[in-house]
From TrEMBL:
One of its GO terms (cellular component) is membrane. Belongs to the MIP/aquaporin (TC 1.A.8) family. The keyword Nucleus does not apply. Pfam families: MIP (PF00230). It comes from the Bacteria. This is Aquaporin. InterPro entries: Aquaporin-like (IPR023271), Aquaporin_transptr (IPR034294), MIP (IPR000425). The chain crosses the membrane at residues 16-40, 52-71, 140-162, 174-193, 213-234. It is a multi-pass membrane protein. The keyword Transport applies. Keywords: Membrane, Transmembrane, Transmembrane helix, Transport. It comes from Amycolatopsis carbonis. GO terms for molecular function: channel activity. It is found in: Membrane.
Amino acid sequence: MTLADRPRPKPEGPTAWAAEAAGTALLVLAALSAIALTMAPAAPLRAWPMELRLLVIGVAVGGTVAVFAVTPPGKRSGAHLNPAVSWFMALRGALSVRDATAYSVAQLAGSVVGVLVARLCWGGRMREVSDGLIQPGPGVGTAGAVVGEVVTTVVLLLVLSWLVSKPRPRETPWVIGAVIAVMIVATGATSGGSFNPARDFGPFVLGSDFRFFWLYMLAPMAGALLAAGGLHAARRAWQPRTCKLCGPALEGTR
């Protein structure tokens, strides 16, 4: 497929950008609320096995993405809620660079808002869990965490690309939500199970702990580059019909 043959992305605009900010704030609030309920020293679910606690967090995060995607704001923006998703869509020609940039700024701003709201809701419990700050698990080195974040991002984006290459894939939000939940359970205790710079931006910035900031900002973006580059090398493989988890096809697709 040549550049001329690619479907043309429709400009999204400020309404979609605002939706991304709001959706990301909800995503971070859901993630931090689940962490407060499962990981804080006096949390009601603290006694549960780690796998079940990670499942609670995974369902909270994946469920928020899926539900937001089918709401009017989610349909408007596409419910990326993740700069790696937005730039992957831009690299695949389904979203303009202007919108990918605006989406990313909105998502990072929404992350900060999400942490502030979580602090209001949970008070001291947020301090006990360091505002949900993610870091590599015990015994996992920096290199291992980078690999984990890159691989999970690639998996997420390849599944998403396959889904949005279909005509009006109604199952996309729910499959993506399930994939997110499964990967959080699988990697939450090792690499951290984030694969989303926006999820981590607020906790890092407001917590003023930047030891692993570069890792959780850059590794998912590297995964987006790898996924987009691999699909580009495969020529016509899984060309997106839409940049949205639940939305209309791009102009020029069939």
